[in-house]
Amino acid sequence: MNWLIDIFGNTSDQARAITAIFVAAVAITAVFINQWFLSRRARKEKLIEKIEETYTAISAAESLIGEVHLRIVAPLSFGEENKPAAKAHFEALEKLSYCNMLASLYFKKLSADIENIEKEYLQSYITYVTAESLPEYMEVYKERKNPIDSHFKNLYMTLNRIMKGVMH
Predict the structure, then answer these.
(1) Using alpha carbons only, what angle is made at residue 65 by residues 82 and 135, rounded to the nearest 5 degrees?
(2) pLDDT of residue 25
(3) What CA–CA distance (Å, rounded) separates 133 from 160?
């Protein structure tokens, strides 16, 4: 400790030492604050990217479910076998699974609606597979369509609320 007193024994040396310590503390604080702001901005950008990705996936799933219905109804109306509906069905299930994965990783609030959509959709598709006629399928489809649409609407509203929270 004697060497410290020898070096900074003079009041002008002490003033310079205090100034250097203060400048170093300010610089270190500025670095930490900068890192904090950068990490918050990066997190916000990543969250916005995931919201956009989820929104796109939900939109695609909704479109595919509608496409499955159209591919079912047209051939059933004419009494034809419908292979394209099965392909679209598996694409819709894959997209719903992807939506569910995104929801479970990033947006827990969306999981229940996605699971309900999947359940309602599968029920309507099972009815198509087991239906004897187009009217029988259409009756069940009409029952399931409103809840499915309602769940999609809830998903979009929840995503919009999340986006507004992120933007402010």
Answers:
(1) 55
(2) 93
(3) 40
Structure tokens at 86: 């099965």
pLDDT under 50: residue ranges of the chain: none
pLDDT given at position 37: 93
The pair of three-digit structure tokens given for residue 24, joined into one six-digit string: 């170093």
Per-residue buried b or exposed e for 63-73, using 16+ beta carbons within 10 Å of the residue's own CB:
ebbebbbebbb
Q: What is the pLDDT of residue 141?
A: 80
User: Do 111 and 80 form a contact (C-beta atoms < 8 A)?
Assistant: no
Determine the angle formed by the axes of helices 11-78 and 134-167, rounding to 10 degrees.
170
Per-residue model confidence (pLDDT) at position 20: 87
pTM above 0.85, yes or no: no
Nearest-angstrom CA–CA distance, 27 and 37: 15
Measured distance CA(141)–CA(131) in Å, rounded: 11
CB–CB of 93/131 below 8 Å?
no
User: Residue 43 contacts by C-beta under 8 Å, 6 or more apart in sequence?
Assistant: none
